[in-house]
Amino acid sequence: MCFSAEADFAVAAVVAPVGVASLRAAARPQELLLAALPLLLALHQLTEGVVWLGLEGDAPGGLRDAATRVYLAFAQVILPVILPLGILLTEPDRRRRAWMSALLVGGAVVAARFAWILTSNPVGARALDHVIIYDTDWEFGYVTAAGYVLVTCGPALIASSRLLRWFGVANLAGLLLASGVRYSAVTSIWCVAAAFVSVLVLLHFRDRAQRAPASPQSRSLQPDGRRGSSTPGSA
User: Fold this and answer.
1) Is 215 part of any domain?
2) Fewer CB within 10 Å, N- or C-terminus of the chain?
């Protein structure tokens, strides 16, 4: 498996239109956060492309360092909050929302832990065997890692939507793939996988739109546009 600046830019170019379509498919304001996820993940890959350019000497060191911090802040601080919150805001079932609320609290704790790691430890990136290893990947430990997996995959796995549950399953599969390729580069590899599987978010919104019942006004209209009568055969 080979990664590079060009590969990250290509992923961003493929996923960004999915994000735009997902935002257009959102029907209510509370759905916008979840709908924006594919586009945010595309921008995340774009940011790592800049990191690659800096590591290859094609971008200034200051730009590389800034891109590294932005990349890690989104992956490790912002994502553990917005992902459970976005799914919570779209969940219709009260019992599932209660569990998701608990996971959102856990996400805030995980985000705070990562924020402390990012601000109290050196932040850097290095290329090794065609992947990027970030300094923080060595710092957070197994407990924080387990908490991160729980809050980023758990809400989708317990969602009412079948496609969102598949999104959670695919994210877990991406984690296993990333860990198998190189655990020390799990942040970089897993985020690529998450960007690709975020297409399931778009499919979720499109499926929901297809299943939505017709409005009373549309049901009362005949195919030719005239209002129908409740009595068959009436004029």
Assistant:
1) no
2) C
* Number of structural domains the chain divides into: 1
Say if 36 falls within a structural domain: yes
Query: Rounded CA gap, 36 and 86, in Å?
Result: 9
Q: What's this model's pTM, rounded to 2 decimal places?
A: 0.83
Contact 59, 43 (CB under 8 A): no
Strand partners, 125: 134
**Domain carrying residue 124:** 5-209
pLDDT tens digit string along 3-53? 788 889 999 999 999 999 999 999 899 999 999 999 999 999 999 999 999
Give domain status of residue 177, yes or no.
Answer: yes
154-159, Cβ contacts within 8 angstroms, sequence gap of 24 or more: 154/84, 154/103, 155/83, 155/84, 155/87, 155/88, 155/100, 155/103, 155/104, 156/83, 156/87, 158/96, 158/99, 158/100, 159/87, 159/91, 159/96
Residue 65 covered by a domain: yes
